[in-house]
Structures are given as structure tokens and as C-alpha cells.
Specification:
alpha+beta, 2 domains, six-stranded antiparallel β-sheet, 3 helices, 28% strand
């Protein structure tokens, strides 16, 4: 597993089953401390940058343990990350179930100011980047098809000219 693998992104209300492999490294960036973990999702190896509490949960997991990671929106536009296994929710102290403090919102990690990991952009900017890349792909596809259409029209005109030339 290397940090060149694709990054696992957790989207709101879409649970992800992941196999926790191993801790790769940690660092400090402009936005604070970050942690890099190796995980496998659907047979594909990824790197994942959890917050500190999820990092602590992963530290308590055995290598190869399958967990479900889910991001949920709570009041005030904040999000929480819940980590669970087949027995239920996991806590940073290694216990099952939600802590007293987290039970009301069922939160394991409040992501009001998410860590930026190795990228100096927010999650919103990353999502905006994905949308922008999609638009660029659509524009490129449109341009390629526009060129194809123009070339087809030119070929059609040449074919008409050639038919006219032959018939004269």
C-alpha cells in the first residue's frame, strides 16, 4: 500500500464498507495534524485521511477488520463520522457503542472544521474541483463531437461535390 493509491472520500449519507489495513503516516499541515491510513474498499486499495477520533478508532482495530464508515449531517450544517463494525458503533477508547457525550447526536467525530490532510483545500473545494473537472470533461466531449460534426458536414459537402462531378 502506498500513498499513491486513490484517496477514499466519504460522502454524506453513503455508508462505505472498508477493511482497515494499516497506519501509513501522519504529519502536520497548515490546517493541523493529519493521519494517513491504508484501507481496502471493494477490493481496491485506498488511502484515507480520517480525523483524530476516527484515527484512534482505527488504532484499536485489528488489521484486516471490516468497518462501516458513514458521514451524517447534524444540526447547524456540521457533519459527523460514525464508524461501526458488525457489533455496532466503535469508540476511540476501543469500546462498543456511543460515548455519553456522543449518544445524543450519535457522533464519533464532529467535522465542523475538517482537517485538510495533505491537500490545502477544504472538502467543499474538493467537491467543487470534482464538479469543475466534470464540466471540463463535458466541454471537451462537446468540442470533440462538434469537431466530428463539422468534419462530417465537410465530408458530406465533399461527397455531394464528388457526386456532382461524376454525374457531369
Amino acid at each position: 500500500m502506498s500513498d499513491k493509491n486513490p484517496q477514499l472520500k466519504i460522502f454524506t449519507n453513503i455508508p462505505v464498507k472498508a477493511v482497515v489495513k494499516n497506519f501509513i503516516k501522519e504529519g502536520e499541515g497548515q490546517y493541523g495534524k493529519w493521519y494517513m491510513w491504508a484501507v481496502t474498499v471493494g477490493g481496491t486499495e485506498h488511502v484515507y485521511f480520517p480525523g483524530e477520533k476516527v484515527h484512534k478508532i482505527f488504532e484499536k482495530c485489528e488489521q484486516g477488520k471490516e468497518v462501516t464508515i458513514e458521514k451524517k449531517e447534524i444540526e447547524g450544517g456540521k457533519t459527523v463520522i460514525n464508524v461501526s463494525d458488525e457489533s455496532g458503533p466503535l469508540q476511540a477508547d476501543g469500546h462498543q457503542g456511543y460515548s455519553k457525550e456522543a449518544s445524543a447526536a450519535q457522533e464519533v467525530f464532529v467535522e465542523s472544521n475538517p482537517p485538510k490532510a495533505t491537500q490545502d483545500v477544504s472538502q467543499d473545494n474538493r467537491e467543487l474541483s470534482i464538479v469543475t473537472q466534470s464540466i471540463l470533461h463535458i466541454d471537451r466531449f462537446y468540442d470533440e463531437n462538434k469537431s466530428f460534426k463539422e468534419n462530417a458536414e465537410r465530408a458530406k459537402e465533399e461527397a455531394k461535390w464528388f457526386l456532382k462531378f461524376i454525374n457531369e
